[in-house]
Amino acid sequence: MLASLRTMPLTSTVHREAHPAAVAATCPDSLVHPIRAAVRRGLGWAETADAVADALRAVLPGPAAILPASPRHGDPSGYQSHLLHAEPDGTFSISAMVWLPGQQTPIHDHVAWCVTAVLQGREHEEIFAPADGGQALRLSARNVNPPGSVSAFAPPGDIHRVRNTGDTVAISMHVYGADISRLGTSIRREYTLPILP
Ligand SMILES: [Fe+2]
User: Fold this and answer.
1) Ligand 1 centre from 109 Cα, in Å?
2) Residue ranges of the chain with pLDDT lower than 70?
3) Whole-number mean pLDDT of the chain?
4) 180 CA to centre of ligand 1 in angstroms
């Protein structure tokens, strides 16, 4: 069973304190090893994210391979993030997220590069760009990511909001270029700026 679960709020109006996160499950070596090899190539952030995404596409697991049954059901209090692996040298972390229908992140950006992979359900992503001299945001893209889709991104240009718009539980896997066990979150900033049409 999982040792601990972290609950994230549904709205962007709640400020979340970062707390160190305990590793909550075991990530298969077949997943960790190719990710580690890609990270150790020592590329820049964007290139590392692309290399990790390529590695992950080749070994993408099913949800049951990374999470026991109970957390795969989701939690009505908010989408759940389960830390699966924190690399001992701090260079990357792997987590799984579980979303009930309608649950969403705040609008946020990230502390480092990130690779996301949808394993179950569909995740709807909105990408935003700064506008009005940084006083507002403007929607720049929408994506619907089905099972098997793997996306890589690196700051800047990584402001987004993710939502489960389907009617079933969505589960995704996330690789971050940072030590989430120490930082407690991958989020650099939550945005509550107005969104221009
Ligand atoms: Fe994100």
Assistant:
1) 6
2) 1-25
3) 88
4) 13
